[in-house]
Amino acid sequence: DAGVIQSPRHEVTEMGQEVTLRCKPISGHDYLFWYRQTMMRGLELLIYFNNNVPIDDSGMPEDRFSAKMPNASFSTLKIQPSEPRDSAVYFCASSLAQFVHEQFFGPGTRLTVL
Amino acid sequence: KNQVEQSPQSLIILEGKNCTLQCNYTVSPFSNLRWYKQDTGRGPVSLTIMTFSENTKSNGRYTATLDADTKQSSLHITASQLSDSASYICVVSAITGGSYIPTFGRGTSLIVHP
Hints:
The structure holds 2 protein chains of 2 kinds.
Chain A: E1 5-7, E2 10-13, E3 19-24, E4 31-38, E5 42-50, E6 53-56, E7 65-71, E8 74-79, E9 88-95, E10 104-105, E11 109-113
Parallel strand pairs in A: 2-11
Antiparallel strand pairs in A: 1-3, 3-8, 4-5, 4-9, 5-6, 7-8, 9-10, 9-11
Chain B: E1 3-7, E2 10-14, E3 19-26, E4 30-38, E5 45-51, E6 56-59, E7 62-67, E8 72-77, E9 86-96, E10 99-104, E11 108-113
Parallel strand pairs in B: 2-11
Antiparallel strand pairs in B: 1-3, 3-8, 4-5, 4-9, 6-7, 7-8, 9-10, 9-11
């Protein structure tokens, strides 16, 4: 398996633009997580899905952020409109279960909002 | 408020030496504690996962310990290698209402010199 795949790896955009980050989890994993990492705040859980259904989105910072998982092999995280403070590395991770199973992280998308 | 404190913030050691990283937490109700290794520019990689009943767990040269009474964990690295240079992140998870609630430490940056 190729592991968790994220695209794009780098994204530079201007404030106010829409940004869409993409993730393909490991086949067979039921859980998908979106994280954000910044120097100031470290790693933060934004939202996670179980069998394509959002379970907890309490970490989503604002209504400008939305995430979908239309099928078991694809998820998106969208920011509209983007702001400079959204600049961060966004990671997607997947696992077989949420509590004691290993989470496998993707390589991340480095987002820069100018 | 759930918190995870890691120490030291950074550490420099010589190749071949051992080192120990600390993680103190106040997370309730406790579900599990994970140690991750994150190389620069990459996603975190799981090293160990421990539940309440586990005191120690090893993964090669990495050994994690957990004292649930004092709410402390340590990660011991034996015979360090240059490739151990990375950030090590402690994550303590709670379960609330069936949801996965992780609390992240800010990490320890380890540099191994030849």
